[in-house]
Structures are given as structure tokens and as C-alpha cells.
Amino acid sequence: MKSIMSSGREERIGKINQQTVLDIQDGVMQAALGAVALTAALVGIWGLLSLFGGIVLGGGVMEMARGWISAVGGM
Fold it and tell me: Which of 39, 52, 63, 75 is most solvent-facing, going by the fewest CB within 10 Å?
């Protein structure tokens, strides 16, 4: 009788623990995906700010176009 009761109890505990582990895994994966997305967004924003900063420091859009045309035309 004891073995039947303990066996059933162990199965229920095993199912709860397995579901808990799956829930934890889902949470960890969501957090990891969020961290990757946040990092990608920050890198993208940094890249755009660097591009616009370089355009401004380089003399503006027209100066950039002149430099590009002279570089391509000089080949």
C-alpha cells in the first residue's frame, strides 16, 4: 500500500517539477530574446547616430555627395 501511494505522489511531484522547469526555461528564453533585441536596437541607434554625426562633422549632405562623386569619378 505504501509503495502505491508513494509512487503516485512521486509521479505528481515529477509532473509539477517538469512543468515548473519548462516554465523557467520559457522565462529564460524570453529574457534572452529580449536582451538580444535590446542590444540590436541599441547598436542600430548607435550606428545611425554615428552616421548622422559624421555627415554633420563632414560638412553636410552636399559635401558628402561631392566627396562621393569625386571618389567614384576619380576611378
Answer: 75
Range of the domain at 27: 2-73
- How far apart are the C-alpha atoms of 60 and 46, rounded to whole Å? 19
What's the pLDDT score for residue 20?
84
Q: How far is CA 2 from CA 8, 15, 16, 60, in A?
A: 10, 20, 21, 83
- Span between the terminal Cα atoms of the chain, in Å: 91
The count of domains in the chain is 1
Per-10-residue mean pLDDT for the chain, 75 residues long? 54 68 90 98 97 91 89 79
30 close to 38: Cβ distance less than 8 angstroms: no
List, as one string, the DSSP characters of 24-41: HHHHHHHHHHHHHHHHHH
